[in-house]
Amino acid sequence: MNLYPVNLNITNRKCVLIGGGRVALRKLRTLLECDPALVIISPEVSAEIATLIAERNISYENRCYRIGDLKGAFLCIAATNDRRIQSAISEEAAEEKVLLNSVTDPEICDFQVPATIRRGDLLVTVSTCGGSPALSKKLRKQLEKEFGPEYSVLVKLFSQIRQQLLTSSWRPESLRPVFQQIDSDKCLRHIIADDWQALENDLKRQLPEICDVQNIIDHLRKEIKN
User: Fold this and answer.
1) What is the pTM of this model?
2) For the chain, give me the number of helices (H) and strands (E)?
3) Are 76 and 89 in contact (CB under 8 A)?
4) Close Cβ partners of 30 (under 8 Å, ≥ 6 residues apart)
5) Per residue in 128-153, is it b (16+ CB within 10 Å) or e — as a string?
6) Please, where are the H alpha helices in 61-212?
7) Which one of 116, 196, 215, 217 has the fewest CB atoms closer than 10 angstroms to its CB?
8) At CA 222, angle to CA 219 and CA 223, rounded to 5?
9) Would you state the pLDDT for residue 224?
10) How many C-beta neighbours within 10 Å does residue 75 have?
11) Same domain? 138 vs 206
12) Mind listing the pLDDT tens digit for each residue in 43-92?
């Protein structure tokens, strides 16, 4: 099975999580990173899920799934241990055209949730297309060591450079050569060392004169502090 890689925007969209156990907790934590309009449906939930429901003011239906629960939903994660219920959820998802992830039946899923590494706006995903979740987890742990928190700062830096150039009438297709001139490895070393002056000096040599590098660095440091 060849999966099409895509990052979904679920912010403020109705997402339904059905289930309240260990697997549902793992799915819930990932969902909460993206600020959906979330609904949890389960006759019982773990203590950890109950705490998140209270802390995040999540809509919770203390009951079993019933037909109609997916009305108006964009996405559903079926995380129960009852195959009969899982099958009923998949049928309604198909009828309502709701994107479905079933934790028990990979073959009926519209999408799979890969192992992820998130560093600010940097999102790295690892998938074996359902072949070996254990291997995905192992690879994720290896990549977590390679991509440290400094990468979240690097993404912010590059984003601010890009926005400043675009507001200065640069066309998107003209940006690639600019970023190819930036020594990203050296930028990372300066960020890790907290040497902002060295970072500013290097960027002034590498970026077009139209870039206000000092302003970019000052804005970046304020963002990090906040």
Assistant:
1) 0.83
2) 9, 7
3) yes
4) 113, 116
5) eeeeeeeebeebbeeeeeeeeebbbb
6) 83-96, 133-146, 150-166, 175-180, 184-193, 196-206
7) 215
8) 85
9) 87
10) 22
11) no
12) 999 999 999 999 999 999 999 999 999 999 999 999 999 999 999 999 99
Residues 48 and 130 both lie in one domain: no
Please tell me whether residues 143 and 158 are part of one structural domain.
no
CA 123, chain centre distance (Å): 6
Given 124, 147, 170, the domain boundary residue is 147
Retrieve residue 140's tokens.
């994720």
- 10 and 101 part of one domain: yes
CATH of the domain at 143: 3.30.160
- Do β-strands 75-78 and 59-61 pair in parallel, antiparallel, or remain unpaired? unpaired
- The whole-number pLDDT of residue 130 equals 78
When divided into structural domains, the chain yields a total of 3
